[in-house]
Design brief:
The protein has one domain (about 10-95): Roll (SH3 type barrels). About 20% of the residues lie in helices and about 30% in strands. It is α+β, with helices and mostly antiparallel strands.
């Protein structure tokens, strides 16, 4: 997995709108990308059913790792959506953490 070495910085979901993202997928292998997709669909299901908060780990355009703890409203082919029309491109997500 192509991850920067630094510890992720916790970011409030409201500040995600200020983050710039790269067009390059942070995950290089098809297996990791498939697992990410499965995890994000599970996170969206948990969000819809029980409003469960999930940890989403992602990388910005400069390679800085971030972590947001929030309820996932939806996971489309290209974005992870949170309340308030806040989105993270799926290509930027490198890990999904369940409590």
């Amino acid at each position: 997995m192509a991850q920067p070495a630094s510890k992720p910085i916790e970011i409030p979901k409201e500040r995600i709108k200020d983050v710039k993202f790269s067009d390059i997928d942070i995950l290089s292998s098809k297996e990791e990308q498939l697992q990410r997709k499965i995890d994000l669909k599970r996170a969206a299901t948990l969000g819809a059913q029980s409003k469960t908060n999930i940890k989403i780990y992602f990388v910005d355009a400069e390679g800085t790792r971030h972590r947001v703890v929030a309820t996932v409203w939806a996971a489309t082919e290209s974005n992870v959506s949170f309340k308030g029309e806040v989105m993270v491109p799926i290509k930027a997500v490198y890990q999904v953490g369940f409590f």
